[in-house]
Amino acid sequence: MHATTPATTGPAVTGRWTRLAGPVATLAGAAGVCALVALTDPTTPGGMSPPCPTKALFGIVCPGCGSARMLYSVLHGDLRAAAAYNAVGLVALVLVVWTYVAWSTRTITGRRIRRWETWRWSPVAVGVVVAVWAIIRNLPVSPFTALAV
Q1: Phi, psi values for residue 111, rounded to 5°
Q2: Using CA of residue 17, residue 38, residue 69, residue 44, what is the dihedral sign?
Q3: How many CB atoms neighbour CB 137 within 10 A?
Q4: Which pLDDT tens digits describe the chain residue by residue (149 residues)?
Q5: Which residues of 57-90 are buried (b: 16+ CB within 10 A; e: fewer)?
Q6: At what angle are helices 79-109 and 122-136 packed, to 10 degrees?
Q7: Which of 14, 73, 108, 149 lies at a CB distance of 3.0 to 4.6 Å from 82, suitable for a disulfide?
């Protein structure tokens, strides 16, 4: 007879590590980007953030303009400044975090969490919000001029 030892390798342990690999790698990449943004100040002129190609080429503010400054403000706890830099980007950040948590939970545990991006109206709603945001950020009348930060 053979003495039995607790399984430290095998399908159960290997499967657990395989399920953790994607969420952990994604979290590590996001943490790296956040660390880079948090340690450099994109709110100062000549900061690490590159200029927006749309603004440089066409002179208009794109829907993503201010996203690096928005993320920097979020990481430093200044939600008011984050919303001023890119309010729609701030909402998008919340949706991305929700998506990551739902995906990670399902990948690791198999339990499903409702995900906004699978709803039938989501692509249309996102498209409409981004288009409207792009238009109102470029209207040359008050109070819309304050949105083109």
Answers
A1: -80, 135
A2: negative
A3: 22
A4: 555 555 555 455 557 778 888 899 999 999 998 888 888 887 777 666 777 888 889 888 889 888 888 999 999 999 999 999 999 999 999 999 999 999 999 888 888 888 888 888 888 999 999 999 999 998 888 887 777 77
A5: eeeebbbbbbbbbbbbbbeeeeeebbbbbbebbb
A6: 160
A7: 73
Rounded Cα distance, 58 and 78, in Å: 30
The token duo for 137 is 């950020």
| CB < 8 Å & 24+ apart, contacts of 75-82 | 75/34, 75/37, 75/38, 76/38
